[in-house]
Design goal:
This protein has 721 residues and is of the alpha+beta class. The protein has 22 helices and 24 strands. Keywords: Membrane, Signal, Transmembrane, Transmembrane helix, Transport.
């Protein structure tokens, strides 16, 4: 081998490197180069969804998928705040009638006591069709091709995509009625079935009938719900649906915007009931069938899930109005455009936060949350205390969106406990003193990177009746100072504690220190700083705090029996109405003895009277007055130490448009847009391969090898001579 051949080898390596550098798209891209400028949105998921059947799904990760596929009658307006309902598949909001016990329509303004029934009357938009699906496929004679598959036909079927033929049909009111009956299907165990039995007329009787007949029916056959009638669900014609409820329950309109009440074609139920498909996990819980903007084209929870545009999606347009700031913020630029704005949504499995975060910074994910490990890299707090992006994020054009969740996280008192319970003034002052001492501003700063808002009462921001400013503070815990709420001094808390009978944390009657117990499910070593923080807060008052940890099941049993003293708890809103928060303190919902969601076992005749008057009123001055009275009552009685409302921080790239945080809507993806060209350009710029270390390494290698090789050849020639 000559020196020239070495130089030739080096030249070839250099040419190969340059050729690679010239390849289309970044070399580290996890996506096909052909997709670089396609209208695709990229996101991720960390855990496999458990249910995709709308009768069963209830978690946020499940709703992220099925909310794009299924269409309830109503939806939330994407831009307006407070949250406003609008028609989805319905032509308009329902006509609501109130009836007396004889079924006669009551005049407007009739007292609630006269209302025996409520009727919600819907008319559907015509021409809406379901996505293409083999359940609808028919032969030349009109017969369903795949409803009665023979054993040999299952041999070549592994996924839904293996069926050659698909079909569609128009959405009808019967599809909504069928889904409502599915909520009671004995094999599905819908999480809202028992609640709906309290409200939908005849629903309990239907549940009893289905329970009886399902278990008596032959196994392995389609259990057809069509022959069953429910008194409170009527279909006068193919595009009209009437639902009758007991009494007045205005919160029902919010349930009608959830996928529990999405339409279900009986054909899909029949198709998926075949044992041969169930054995292959081809079920409705895995392959949804809807009329929404997207269909689930790929479901591989060990790798990725893919949504694609539904080719039969009906006309739906981006909103033309919103809040006053939406226009200047660019959120009305797409007003009137046909939805969805993105053709495809690719969701990749990412179990670890660091790889996910790095891919986001490289431009391979369009938006991201912020894990604690990455928070300081992404966010800093300005002189005013408000969150700001770091220079590194700003340089990349990344944007920050924040929103306060419709959630409560709090420490609750068991009002049945002899030490912290009771509604006399002394016990109220004890709980008020503890509320002041528990510094949740410090908690939010230390444990949540500032991602929270200290709670002033039961209602979080965004819920009707929540009040900003001085009028909205808890006056038993805060003062209004220089335009902001400021927690009362620890001296004020000590005074209240003394008035409650515990001067300096000592029981005046017995001379013994006041010892309180925080009951919680088992915590690990990582939670020691949090528990130490809780103890430190009460030490400021001279009060001792003891932790009683059990496993989760034992903790739940302790709560159900009313044996806890102080406990940690939280609540995420099902719908944006004050009733969905105040009911947590309604006496009839007490855990003991009723097994309800009132974990504090708070029972106040005054509160219950106000709540019963407030819950079914329409929003307006009278309801607002009652909400204010309810807030005042619970602030004084302090059944909770009102902790915080979590604040979510999300990041998105400059090419990701129309993002406005919405805590209630599940069908948000149809409003999103992607500037794919800008994304491709920035990915290329951010992921340019750095070749000089490789080339320098080759050069150093050659510099070391060539002299040695020359010396070796010289010795060979000398030996030959």
């Amino acid at each position: 081998m000559s020196t020239g051949s070495n130089e030739l080898g080096f030249g070839l390596m250099l040419a190969a490197a340059l050729a690679l550098a010239g390849c289309e798209g970044p070399l580290n891209s996890p996506y096909p180069a052909a997709d670089a400028e396609r209208n695709i949105l990229y996101s991720s998921f960390s855990e496999r969804p458990k249910h995709l059947d709308p009768a069963r799904a209830y978690s946020s990760d499940e709703s992220l998928i099925i909310g794009q596929i299924y269409e309830p009658l109503l939806q939330y307006h994407y831009l307006k705040r407070p949250y406003v309902l609008e028609p989805a598949t319905a032509e308009a909001l329902p006509e609501i009638r109130y009836l007396d016990a004889s079924g006669k329509v009551l005049p407007a303004g009739a007292p609630d006591s006269a209302i025996a029934y409520s009727e919600y009357d819907f008319r559907l938009k015509p021409g809406i069709r379901f996505q293409p699906h083999p359940a609808f496929a028919r032969g030349a004679g009109g017969e369903y091709l795949y409803h009665h598959l023979r054993p040999e036909q299952f041999a070549g079927i592994r996924t839904l995509a293996d069926f050659r033929e698909t079909g569609t049909r128009e959405l009808t009111a019967e599809d909504y009625a069928y889904q409502i009956k599915r909520l009671l299907h004995p094999a599905l165990h819908s999480p809202i079935a028992e609640l709906m039995k309290e409200h939908i007329v005849g629903f309990k009787a239907l549940g009893d009938a289905l329970e009886r007949d399902y278990f008596a029916a032959p196994k392995g056959r389609f259990f057809d719900l069509r022959p069953y009638a429910v008194e409170g669900v009527q279909v006068p014609d193919s595009h009209r649906l009437v639902i009758r409820l007991y009494g007045k329950y205005p919160q029902f309109r919010f349930w009608l915007a959830m996928t529990f009440f999405a339409p279900m074609p009986w054909e899909a139920d029949a198709f998926y009931a075949q044992p041969g498909l169930i054995e292959k996990n081809i079920t409705l819980d895995w392959y949804p069938v809807g009329s929404g903007p997207y269909l689930l084209a790929e479901n591989n929870p060990n790798r990725r899930m893919v949504l694609e545009r539904n080719p039969y999606f009906h006309e739906d347009r981006y909103p033309a109005e919103g809040d006053p700031e939406d226009g200047p913020n660019g959120l009305l630029a797409d007003a009137g455009r046909l939805l969805p704005l993105v053709d495809r949504v690719v969701m990749n499995l990412e179990k670890e936060t660091i790889p996910y975060w790095n891919k986001f910074l490289q431009g391979y994910y369009d938006y991201s949350g912020i894990a604690s490990d990455n928070f300081d890299q992404a966010v800093q707090f300005g002189s005013s205390g408000s969150p700001e992006l770091t220079p590194e994020m700003l340089e990349k054009g990344i944007r920050l969106e924040t929103s306060v969740a419709a959630s409560d996280y709090y420490l609750g008192f068991n009002l049945r406990d002899p030490v912290v319970g009771g509604l006399d003034e002394a016990h109220c002052k004890l709980r008020q003193a503890l509320s002041i001492a528990m510094d949740y501003e410090e908690f939010i700063s230390i444990f949540m990177n500032g991602r929270g808002v200290a709670a002033q009462g039961v209602l979080p921001p965004g819920i009707y009746g929540y009040q900003e400013g001085e009028k909205g503070i808890n006056p038993y815990v805060y003062d209004w100072v220089d335009g902001v709420p400021r927690r009362k001094s620890i001296e004020t808390a000590r005074r209240l504690l003394a008035e409650a009978g515990y001067p300096n944390g000592v029981d005046a009657a017995t001379g013994k220190p006041l010892v309180l117990y925080l009951d919680l499910s088992t915590h690990g070593a990582d939670d020691k700083p949090l528990l130490a923080w809780y103890r430190k807060q009460l030490e400021k008052l001279g009060v001792q705090l003891v932790f009683r940890a059990t496993d989760y099941n034992q903790f739940q049993q302790k709560m159900a029996a009313g044996n806890a003293q102080i406990y940690q708890w939280g609540w995420n809103a099902d719908y944006p109405d004050p009733e969905n928060f105040f009911f947590l303190l309604y006496g009839r919902n007490a855990k003991v003895p009723n097994g309800g969601e009132n974990a504090s076992n708070y029972v106040s005749e005054e509160f219950d009277r106000l709540f019963e008057r407030m819950r079914n009123l329409d929003d307006g001055p009278e309801r607002l007055r009652l909400i204010e009275a309810l807030q005042e009552k619970v602030r004084h009685d302090a059944p909770w130490i009102f902790g915080l409302h979590p604040k979510s921080f999300s990041l998105h790239h400059a090419w990701y448009g129309n993002l406005k945080p919405h805590l209630m809507a599940n069908n948000k993806l149809k409003y999103m847009k992607i500037d794919a060209r800008q994304r491709a350009a920035r990915r290329a710029a951010w992921n340019r391969p750095v070749w000089w270390p490789l080339l320098a390494g080759f050069a150093l290698l050659l510099a070391a090898v060539v002299p040695a090789y020359r010396h070796y050849r010289q010795r060979q020639r000398a030996a030959a001579r």
